[in-house]
Amino acid sequence: MIALVILALLGVFLMMSGVLGIGRKSAGVVATLGIGAALLANTLMWDKDVTALNEMFNKMMIVDNYGLAMVGVILASAFGLFLLSDKYFSEITNYFTEHYALYIFALVGMICMVMYNNLSMLFIGIEIMSVSLYILAGSNKTNLASNEASLKYFLMGSFATGILLMGIALIYGATGSFYLSGIESHFVDNPDSNNIIALVGMFLLLIGMAFKVSVAPFHFWAPDVYEGSPTFVTAFMSTAVKVAGFASFYKLMYICFTPNILYWESVVWVMIVLTISVGSITALIQTGVKRLLAYSSVSHAGYMLITILTANEDSDLLFYTAAYVIASLLAFGVLFLVIDAKGDDKVESFNGLSKSNPFLAFSLTVAMASMAGLPLTAGFFAKFYVLTAAVKDGYIYLVLIAIVNAMVGIYYYFKVVIAMFFKEESSETISISVSPFYKLVLTSGILATIVLGVYPDLVYNLI
Predict the structure, then answer these.
(1) What is the DSSP annotation of 45-104?
(2) Which of 191, 326, 348, 452 has the fewest Cβ atoms within 10 angstroms?
(3) Who's near 196: CB < 8 A, 6+ residues apart?
(4) Interatomic CA distance for residues 397 and 402, integer angstroms
(5) How confident is the model over 370-403, as pLDDT tens digits?
(6) Contact (Cβ atoms closer than 8 angstroms) between residue 65 and residue 462
(7) Model pLDDT, residue 429
(8) pTM more than 0.90
(9) Do residues 60 and 116 make contact, with C-beta atoms less than 8 angstroms apart?
């Protein structure tokens, strides 16, 4: 909760800093240090008695270890991205302080989404985050693709928000409560109830949240928005935003609707199969790495959705999101530099990268190996824990489909690796310079991926 206050004040300060005449570099340092301070404050609250704090907010938001852990992943991903952001923000000629403020306000919304205990607070958190992202997606105003991404995101996001809000209204009408515990009590006390209002409200909430986390068949906006948005914005949506969406989705389904899982179990099962399959198969035919990572994000959403179906351990979702975020930061960290040097994100732009810059090639290889779920990477245990939980709950066919798609994933992830190591550049070799600080950040990501691939309990047993 202290992290929320820090970020809210930081966002207001950055919004006003343009008037105060603060320069770009100073604003960047303040924003990055502010996120780091919020991350530290969030970490210091671990295992503390926060009863009085929860009562202060009338229990509309609850601080617990699950929320602290997921907020920690969100803030760590944002902190890592901001450490890699110098080139991106240096190209923004106007309103750069407002750009920083929008990212910070988006993080404020994400914290509300993760720690909510009341559906109205969930809605508020989603809207704070979404409005910031609508603007950021179209922040490259001279690029038609960015304008299109912003419009599509706004239209689809508004449509999903309407569905979500209708679901909240129906749930309140059926249960008489916005609080998660009150909704849960209604379904526990009426296990055989087929209250049509409650069931329709539940499915509307399910659909609304599925839109927000780009789960098939409600994913169709994601690839176009990810491709058209500035690459840094895409990285932000693929990491912090994805984690916040699933953390709140998991909490909603696990607490409120587990008592009547028989009504939605088959629906979620089908959504998982569609999401993993559509993401994997469509990624096969992509020629641009940015769009490939977009469909990869859709596929990973399917694996994260399995945790909602099993809901055995909060640690399954925590570890998967942590492993996914680290790999994504590595991949986008390399992508930033390649796009800047080559001018596009085509797979061919990575040809011969191992010769011109072995460090970047190795960094991207580790990222792709982790996303593919290969052993000795964090991604391997991420998939292992999720699929093991599914097997224990008897979802054998679901696991088999997921394994087949994981094997397909190895092919499209390693298209980029093959280009880097086994293909020659078609034109004159372009040297990509990497600053020592940038190398340090990427090296930290590589070490984290490998360490969690060998000692997963460092994260898995936190909650």
Answers:
(1) TTT---HHHHHHTTTSB---HHHHHHHHHHHHHHHHHHHT-HHHHHT--S-HHHHHHHHH
(2) 191
(3) none
(4) 9
(5) 999 898 999 999 999 999 989 988 889 999 999 9
(6) yes
(7) 58
(8) yes
(9) yes
Contact 105, 132 (CB under 8 A): yes
Largest Cα separation within the chain, whole Å, is 71
pLDDT under 70 in the chain at which residues? 18-19, 21, 91-94, 191-194, 312-313, 426-430
Residues 193, 314: Cα–Cα separation, whole Å: 28
CA distance 194 to 191: 9
Give me 201's structure tokens.
């409200």
Quickly tell me which residue has 């977009």 as its tokens: 294
pLDDT value of position 157:
85
* Start-to-end C-alpha separation, the chain: 18
From residue 119, give the alpha-carbon distance in Å to each of 66, 245, 249, 254, 355. 18, 14, 12, 14, 53
Separation CA 68–CA 231 (nearest Å): 28
Angle at 290 between CA 288 and CA 292, to 5 degrees: 70
